[in-house]
Amino acid sequence: MKILKLKRFCVTALIVIAAYLLQCTVFQSFQLAGIKPNLLIIVTAAFGFMRGSREGMLVGFVCGILVDIQFGNIIGLYALIYLIAGYVNGLFERLYFDEDIKLPILLIAVSEFLYGVVIYFLMFLLRSDFDFLLYLNEIIVPELIYTIGITLILYPLILLVNHKLEAEEKRSASKFV
Length: 177
Hints:
Helices cover 80% and strands 0% of the residues. By secondary structure, it is mainly α. The chain is elongated.
């Protein structure tokens, strides 16, 4: 059983690191009008509603710390934002069904939108930048659309990995019963 937990931990860490590296390298080249998708919010939200609040918070915290180290002026700000996103998405674990892609897309879209709004309030409004509609139209909405587009590709891959891990965990659990 400990081997399966270790395997899940390693696979989750690999997914987070891959998403981070893709976001920082490959998707820097695929910017559209200076906008790139937020792969880490996709991963955080997906693990939240697939595995629950606890795992969503853990993945969110790690994703946030990676963003803090790379881009943040204040260590812990992004970690807190992603941690909260993972927790809130984890609250929807009971409503989540693998076959239905509408809920994951809706949750990822809401997470991305709220992420953009929180970043605006904490990073721009506090510096007396009061043009929220400009930020909404030029940053939040385009990033939201781009992130949803990438979600349609990335989410099924995360779902496939989660199915394989859960199947292996169920096979191992049935051996002990």
